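Known limitations

Structure tokens in this collection are predictions and should be treated as such. Users comparing against experimental data should check residue numbering before alignment. To illustrate the layout, the record for Spy/CpxP family protein refolding chaperone is reproduced below. The input appears on top and the generated tokens appear beneath it.
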Amino acid sequence: MKTFQLQTLLRTGAVVAALALGGVAAHAQPGPGRHGGPHGGPPPAGLFGGHLDHALDLVSATDAQRSQIDAIFKAAHEDLKGQREAGRKLHEQLATLFTANNIDAAAIESVRSQISAQQEAASKRMTQASIDAARVLTPEQRAKIAEVAKKRQARAAAHRPG
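Generated tokens:
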């Protein structure tokens, strides 16, 4: 095999392997009291940063606000429930392709593309849920959440090597 083809195959394999590992992490189930994201995990980063209950506590959200936001994320989770099984099947298909005697780069790319499209659809749905939830809160509540998130990001950045 030519060096260029081998390098391309290795790069493609690394990207697809990273996507496969990311998919496994995305399929994790939420713990008790956690709100599910597109694959059962936390809501995406953004206004809530994956810590919905804590964020709502910080801003003293009313029971009505909590109920509305809970319904928004439950609906999004329900909308994306079918994608979970489809995603598992795609990742199994990808693993099968990578363990085959002959590596079919076109088939691998096709599955990678399907996984990417599925993740994009889930991201769009959860972003819309986050927008809908943010609209339930007052501007002051959103500003407080953003302030806390900014402090958390600064602390995390201070601990990163670099």
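For this record: The chain has one domain: 35-149. Residues 35-149 form one domain. Please report discrepancies through the issue tracker.
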